[in-house]
Design goal:
This protein is α+β, with helices and mostly antiparallel strands and about 180 residues long. It has helices spanning about 30-35, 50-65, 90-100, 110-115, 155-165, and strands at about 5, 20, 30, 40-45, 70-75, 105, 120, 125-130, 135-140, 175-180. It is built from five helices and ten strands.
Length: about 180
């Protein structure tokens, strides 16, 4: 299992807009129509990566816990489905249903959005403030497959709590570690 870290793009970066198909609803969504009032969480994930599989239950709980806070959660898969057919849109739909996603799971077929965001691995998290400026990028928490640290979402939750309180998010942030995005 290879380990690829997040690129840790500069804080304050403006969120690139996109228009992608949701594999759950079949609808096309743009960032501008889905952005949250307080924050927007963009999560690059996939179906097969052991790092994603390890955190997926805890990850699916975070949007439920922040349901009343007008925060938008958006998952995107950018993996090449020729080399990794388990990440196909049909399998994305099944994965979302199996894991009770309450957020869209978008397919980035040409990988342009992953490149625009500087996504490097799955999972890779980007949290934007109400002005769609990057406030957090990196890991969900310190849990990794086999390290026996519980999945809590602490890093993401702390960033969201700070944004909701109108406070600055701590700029000392840890990169996510995961499988590299499967580039074409």
């Amino acid at each position: 299992m290879g380990e690829t870290p997040s690129k840790m793009i500069p804080l304050g970066t403006k969120a690139p807009d996109f228009s992608l198909t949701d594999t759950i609803s079949g609808r096309t969504h743009s960032l501008s129509e889905m952005e949250g009032d307080h924050a927007t969480v963009i999560m690059f994930i996939c179906n097969h990566c052991p790092f994603v599989v390890h955190i997926i239950e805890g990850l699916a709980e975070i949007p439920v816990d922040y349901d009343k806070e007008n925060i938008s959660f958006i998952a995107i898969s950018s993996n090449d489905i020729i080399s990794h057919p388990q990440d196909s849109p049909e399998n994305m739909t099944r994965f979302a249903e199996r894991n009770n996603f309450t957020f869209p799971y978008l397919f980035d077929s040409d990988q342009e959005i992953a490149r625009a965001y500087g996504a490097a691995c799955t999972p890779d998290f980007f949290i934007f403030n109400k002005d769609l400026r990057l406030a957090y990028r990196g890991q969900m928490d310190n849990s990794r497959p086999g390290n026996n640290i519980p999945v809590t979402g602490t890093d993401i939750r702390n960033a969201l709590d700070n944004l909701l309180a109108g406070e600055k998010v701590n700029p000392v942030q840890q990169p996510s570690i995961g499988c590299n995005i499967k580039w074409k």
